[in-house]
Amino acid sequence: MSQHVEQLFERLWQDYISRTPSAPKVHEVLGKGHPIVNDHVAFRTFDIAPVRLEALAQHFLDLGYKEGGDYHFEAKKLRAKHFEHEDPTLPKVFISELMTEEFSDSLQAKVKEMVSHINPEDVKKDDFLYSGTHWQVSHEDYQALLEESEYAAWMAAFGFCANHFTVSVNQLPGYTDLEEVNQTLKDNGFKLNTSGGEIKGSPEVYLEQSSTMANHHPVEFSDKTVEIPSCFYEFAKRYEIEPGKLYSGFVAASADKIFESTNAS
């Protein structure tokens, strides 16, 4: 079972670095030859069948993952869940979905049109989580979505893939805190997400997070090719919720700011 999980994450990683070329450099800068352990991998989707959050989650439930917490993001109009595996070396999974009915009729119509191109049987296939877009949109459509929801526009451009991987600072040799990690990244030319401060969260909520700003990647829209923000890398430091047990959930107020790593920078 764990071999299948590892194969899935390896395929997700290879797909992710194709639009996040800075990610291997993060490994070089922070890992210095040591393997990097990922805390979690995040995905985005819409609240429309057949691609609802639960449909994506089924891939992980089938591989032995269990449901963790539920999260709501009122301003960005999202709901999310996280999933964990009993093998602590495997990354947690964070899946969010856009609550489309809280947006304009035009956004709802565009998203429904995009999702209508997806064969429900394809959603069950092993490669769906890194299958990208199943539709074509114009750059004008992308811009219209962007005015209402960065999340919707990002989905229109990139579709189904890992939105970000996350370095586990707890398992990063040579580092004891997130400030050191951030400084090393800045010293090596990485731009960090400063929304809500470079570090989101605190020991008091048992989780600190930071992230790079997304790479820019060329996207072929139906009318032209444009470079837009793609994917980013996150860094997480967890604290003990009781002796010998690290907090394994997420903090909605911090995650809200992490979503902004794909904003135009």
TrEMBL record:
<keyword id="KW-0408">Iron</keyword>
<keyword id="KW-0223">Dioxygenase</keyword>
<dbReference type="Pfam" id="PF07063">
    <property type="entry name" value="HGLS"/>
</dbReference>
<protein>
    <recommendedName>
        <fullName>2-oxoadipate dioxygenase/decarboxylase</fullName>
        <ecNumber>1.13.11.93</ecNumber>
    </recommendedName>
</protein>
<comment type="similarity">
    <text>Belongs to the 2-oxoadipate dioxygenase/decarboxylase family.</text>
</comment>
<keyword id="KW-0560">Oxidoreductase</keyword>
<dbReference type="InterPro" id="IPR009770">
    <property type="entry name" value="HGLS"/>
</dbReference>
